[in-house]
Type II Zorya anti-phage system protein ZorE (Citrobacter enshiensis), 363 residues
Amino acid sequence: MKLSIDISELIQLGRKMLPEGVDFFLDETPVVFDPIDIELSAGKEVRIEDLDPGSGLISYQGRQVLLYIRDHTGRYDAAIEDGEKGKRFHISWCRTLDDMRQKNRFERYHATNRVDGLFEIDDGLGRSQDVALKVCMNCLERLNYKGSIDKQQKRVIFKSFSLNEFFSDYSTCFRHMPKGIYDKSNSGYVENWKDISRTTREQANYKCSDCGVNLMSMKSLCDVHHKNGIKYDNSAENLLVLCKDCHRKQPLHEGIFVTQADMAIIQRLRSQQGLLKAESWKDIYDLTDPSIHGDINIMQHKGYPPPVPGLDLQNAEHEIIATVEAAWPVSKIAVNLTPVKVDGWKVFSVGELVKEIQSGVIF
């Protein structure tokens, strides 16, 4: 039996009782998974037309999913012996899927939000087994994931690809957290971890050690990171106070899921505190959402200057229409997590600037 508790009225009352400018928050927000989340973790057969339209990423009912072919008739034994010999799984609308969609020739795909890299395949004769299939290389290139437009880099990413990290990088594009990320990120802590975390954050005044944003007004977006990835090693030298955005960008991060609303708050606080200043490409990547890094990287690859992070776009009446993730004001090009229309600007959503450049429209 699933219980859903609506605490929105409590939050609103809390905000009214506090002084203006001080936010009310709860340290823990209950995560409730719908039956579809459980179903997707096991793999669900889908029709292509049932997938959500309008994104370079693959989405089903607002959830980021992967597409894979369960039926491995003819190569089942080979795939079990070596996952690289199995059929590839897809993370984006790459040219392979686009070609099949145009020809109306889709195989029977299953959608999953499983993050452990295992996919249940069968031989068409009753045998089935979990196998570590490999990601489609065309998908990596389609998103320019971690610089995969470079052939040598694409091979490196192909070999080391982590679904846990991939889902975390694109978490702001989706409304729902994959159950696998939640289970993994909430396991392995010592019994008194909440007390340790609170004390560590208080000692740092809720200030991120990387970007410098002060989260005193939004403490729930302030994390404590284990540098060596070992959650039970709570020695002072192993703990680092970070905002959620900087946390998920750390090596050995545990698949931090940052919502679009959380990212907007962090960016707003950075802007208010004068922290959205970039002097190098490294600063740009540190201060922007990982989901647009492929779009930013391809502009860097094409020789464009570093973009302006968190730029306010205005209309003819000088009213702010939107605050975009990254923008090139001279070229009137911007990238944003959600679609935005501003006269005179080309504002691309996640992965769409990569596609535009790859098609030769923008140079």
Notes: Confidence is low (pLDDT under 50) at residues 1-8, 18-28. The chain has three domains: 35-180, 188-270, 278-358. The two ends are 55 Å apart (CA to CA). The longest strand covers residues 320-328.
